[in-house]
Amino acid sequence: MVQTRTRIIDVGGRTVISVEVPKSLHVVGTTSGVYVRRALEVDGSPHCVPFPAHEMLAHEIDRGAVDFAAIPARGATASDLDPAELDRFRRLSSVSMADPILSELSDLEICRALGVWRTADDGVERPTLGAVLLFGTEAAISRHVPNHEVAFQVFDGLSLEINHFTRSPLFKAAEDVFHRVSVWNREEELQFGMLRIALPALPAQVAREAIANALVHRDYTAVGPTRVTISEDAFEVTSPGGFPPGVRLDNLLTISQPRSPILADAFRRAGVVERSGRGVSLMFMSMLRLGREAPDYTQSTERLVRAIVPLGKADIAMARFVAQRENDRGRPMRLFDLQVLHELRAQSKLSATEIAHELNRTLGETRAGLNRMLEEGLVEQRGTGSRRIYHLSAAVYRALDNSPAYVRIRGTESIQHEQMVLRYVESFGPITRGKAAELCLLTPQQATRLLGRMVERGKLIRIGERKATVYDLPNAVG
User: Fold this and answer.
1) What are 324-348's pLDDT values in tens digits?
2) Is the separation of the CB atoms in 151 and 164 below 8 Å?
3) What is the C-alpha radius of gyration for the chain, rounded to an integer number of angstroms?
4) Where does residue 55 rank: exposed (0-12), middle (13-18), buried (19+ CB within 10 A)?
5) What is the pLDDT of residues 171-194, one digit of tens each?
6) Is residue 123 part of a domain?
7) pTM for this structure?
8) Residues 172 and 289 occupy one common structural domain
9) Would 325 be classed as within a structural domain?
10) Which of 62, 218, 472, 476 has a beta carbon 3.0–4.6 Å from 239's, enabling a disulfide?
11) Which domain holds residue 386?
């Protein structure tokens, strides 16, 4: 029973009734057995609607209180599991990157080890819904988990070339879609001296993680298939249900919070997905390392997760630079570095605040990463304080065969700085070194060099000495 507390309080001279309702770990109904939930009318006004049992279950699953895969499948028996699917799991788990010990267990031992064989309310041990999803026959899946379905579609413009639907258990469905994607996937191989780079349209690791994540993390109480779509421009994976509890767009690369820990553990132990929970980060790295756009999750809503992987033309120069650097250093580049290089390549120059916003990272983390990249010669900075901006270093531009872009950034800035100083002096009179540095986002030393060049070219004259030095237009002194 929930005990509420009602008080009358004074707020700004007005009497307000305050009702305090304690947080409950479970769905709460009235003493007469009525369960309702809040909803919005078409006009946006709030009201109460019935809260049926299946929605209660979905609510508990969505907030992480119940694992869908742990629920006993009522009436299911061992005969509802396909021995061939358990053999498939043994084959998958036998490799070194998986959990080889599981490949030596019996069918029942595998189910118990994965937590998908439990005692039901009637006291009988039986398969859970997770067992049916992982190893069940299609008939058992249709009976116990009717919302499970996987669609694979390939479009040529608006024409649907392939339209395949299946209710296969999860490992079989995943392998089937992996194979279909690999048949479609095309790869270009580039040779740069002794360095050979493979440029697939879609890295295999990206496809595997995106598909497996959708199958593992989708909401199986929600209607609709897990959909894998390939078009000329994008590889797209859509799954019913929003992000799992605690996962948002701004922490997608750092938080691993599966909707079903049981299904996630099964896929990890089978070696299908990355075991450390960094699958999404590896998807981003795989795309950026090849000079391609990162996956996009911004079209996800509270009702579905949509991962869109652009299939546009690769930035071959960037792919070559990354491959050469990794080859020289003997280790992969950091995701942060790849993201910053990608953003600065696209937008020329950005502040730390802008980079933090683009990458969904904290400002402190971003500044620390940029300082390290400065030390490693990947970026350069201009300006001081909060107005400091960053751009790719001259060495990176040379490696990208785009030295003119670096010259444009630095050369144009010099011209702009001179014009800014001249406009200031014309409007406000003599300028100091400190004011020039503030105006042009330069260090004091850079401002000194700028003003010195302008004096040498006759655009300004120097007045005074040392700290009293100011700079004015030649015709202003007379």
Assistant:
1) 899 888 999 999 999 999 999 998 8
2) yes
3) 30
4) middle
5) 999 999 999 999 999 888 777 777
6) yes
7) 0.76
8) yes
9) no
10) 218
11) 334-401
